[in-house]
Amino acid sequence: MELVNPGVGLIFWMTLSFGIVLFLLSKFVWPMILGSLKEREEGITNSLEAAKQAREEIQNLQSNNEQLLKEARDEREELIREAGRLKDDLINSAKVEADVEAKQIIDSAKAVIEQEKSAALSELKNKVADLSIEIAEKLLRAELSVDKKQKGLMDKLISDADNQLN
Amino acid sequence: MIIRPVRYFLVVILLLFNSLSFAQHTVENNDSHSANEDEIEQEEIFNAGDMILEHIVDSYEWHILSYGDFHLSFPLPVIVYHDGSLITFLSSAFHHGHSPALFDANNNIINSDDITHNQSIVFGLAVMHDGAHKGKLAYINTDEYLKHHQIVENTEAGMPYDFSITKNVLALWLSLIFILWVFISVAKSYKSRKGLAPKGIQSMLEPFIIFIRDDIAKASIGERKYEKYLPYLLTIFFFIFFNNLIGLIPFFPGGANLTGNIAVTMVLALFTFVITNVSGNKNYWVHLVNTPGVPWWLKFPVPLMPIVEFVGLLTKPFVLMVRLFANITAGHIIVLGFISLIFIFGNMNPAVGYGVSVVSIAFAIFLTFLEFLVALIQAYVFTLLSALYFGAATEEHH
Predict the structure, then answer these.
(1) For residue B36, what pLDDT is reported?
(2) Do B168 and A37 make contact, defined as CB atoms within 8 angstroms?
(3) Residue A23 with chain B: CB contacts under 8 Å
(4) d(CA B297, CA B295)
(5) Among partner residues B161, B166, B235, which is closest to A10 by beta-carbon distance?
(6) Element (H, E) at A106
(7) Residue B25 domain-assigned (yes or no)
(8) Least CB-CB distance to B166: which of A9, A18, A43?
(9) Which domain holds residue B206?
(10) Residues of B with CB below 8 A from A25's CB?
(11) How many CB atoms lie within 10 A of CB B122?
(12) Is residue B48 part of a domain?
């Protein structure tokens, strides 16, 4: 009987003490623990979500990078090609210019030579003419001392000059 | 691999020697007491029933151990409401339950050494050894005690209002302080380690807290209303679980059979009962008074269904009370029973006692492990059923 006969004192103290502890725990302790648990669970969920997003972003970035790399490579190739073309053009145009210039130089040199030649020729002609005149003068002086001889010589000289000029 | 069995063997041997010496002293003590008090040469044999009951019921002192004539126990305050005033004294006045506490007209305790017939003894209190109020504090027949030195209950005086701080009350306070300390420190670590992984005691208790929240409260009460009942469910779960475990520790501060005490389980069941009925909605009360889906003739001339429902209402807390009490007490009785076997056989012949002790200790160890499981299961069952009752009381529609 003792076993199943609840004592009044124990009921009283149990109700009082358990009630106080229940109140204290429910008021201060459980809300803190449950709140932190909830917060942490939400935090974990959010972090997982964020990690997933970050992963996706990284993937996007990676594909972007590849795209950029490809573009850069293309551009480089284009540039190289362009440079090659430019080089060829430059060389070609330089060649053409050089040719033209060389031709001009040659031409002008030719012209100068021609000029010089004609100048030299004319000078030579003049000199020859002068010399001829001098000689002729001297001869004439000598010849013209006799009148007959003067006239004959004159004719002969004129016909010579005619022959020579024609 | 070789060391293991040796270690187990040593543990068994140690337990065995301890138990046997305990047995002999118990017998000797009983002998000396009976010789001193009753002067009767009566060979008192070991009474397993008394020993077991002594270990599982409440007590006015906390007995830790006896060694020969030396008793290590401490007295606890006795508080009695008598005739409009509170009387407080230490239970050492009972001399381990062997003598009564006698009072004069001013409610002052009279020293038992100078008791004479003509002293003004008005009333006496003693712990009953037998009868209907065995183990309880009761008024005694003072004349009978003075004449024959026997403690006889004064049945006409009724029962005193006994608010003593008994062994179970002290164990209750110790366990509540322990629970408060544990959970305040856990709450602190939740606060200081916000958003971090649990650590230490926090990580040990967190699975239980989450289990109660998700698999008991949410599952039984529903997503919308469970939060209101969660603190209570957590409190009773940990109160029952911790006290079940503390009850399995054989020495102070364990050893009090708190959750195997009917008063404690009764209060717990009443808390659940009150919360259930306070939070009961219209649907719940309609279901109780006018059960839907039942033929009208079961309700109208003879209100059979309402009676059945009402009985069911009262049965629920009663079953909660008895289940926890019986499970825990039965576990203790079986363990103590196996230990008692050693003394019973040892009284026949010490050699037989030694032989039986091996088997008894093995069974007691096995049962103690079983009790660990029961400690958890009973805490779970009590909490789950409370949650189911709350769920039924707050259910909206079928």
Answers:
(1) 43
(2) no
(3) none
(4) 6
(5) B166
(6) helix A30-143
(7) no
(8) A9
(9) 167-394
(10) 179-180, 183, 231, 234-235
(11) 15
(12) no
Whether residues B360 and B292 fall in one domain: yes
ipTM attached to this prediction: 0.82
Who contacts A161 (Cβ-Cβ below 8 Å, separation ≥6)? none
Rounded distance between C-alpha atoms, residue A114 and residue A133, angstroms: 27
Distance, in Å, from the CA atom of B378 to the CA atom of B384, rounded to the nearest integer, reads 10
Query: pLDDT per residue over A63-89, tens digit each?
Result: 999 999 999 999 999 999 999 999 999
**Residues B259 and B133 reside in one and the same domain:** no
Burial-class residue B123 by CB neighbours within 10 Å (0-12, 13-18, 19+): buried
Q: Distance from B223 to chain A by nearest Cα, in Å?
A: 14
Indicate yes or no: CB of B172 within 8 angstroms of CB of A14: yes
Q: Specify whether the CB–CB gap between B82 and B160 falls below 8 A.
A: yes
User: What are the tokens at B5?
Assistant: 């069995």
Higher pLDDT, B301 or B15: B301
Given CB atoms, is A12 within the 8 Å cutoff of chain B?
yes
What's the angle, vertex CA B300, arms to CA B294 and CA B302, rounded to 5? 105
Using a CB-CB cut-off of 8 Å, the residues of chain A touching B323 are none
B262 with A3: Cβ contact below 8 A: yes
Residue B319, in any domain of the structure: yes
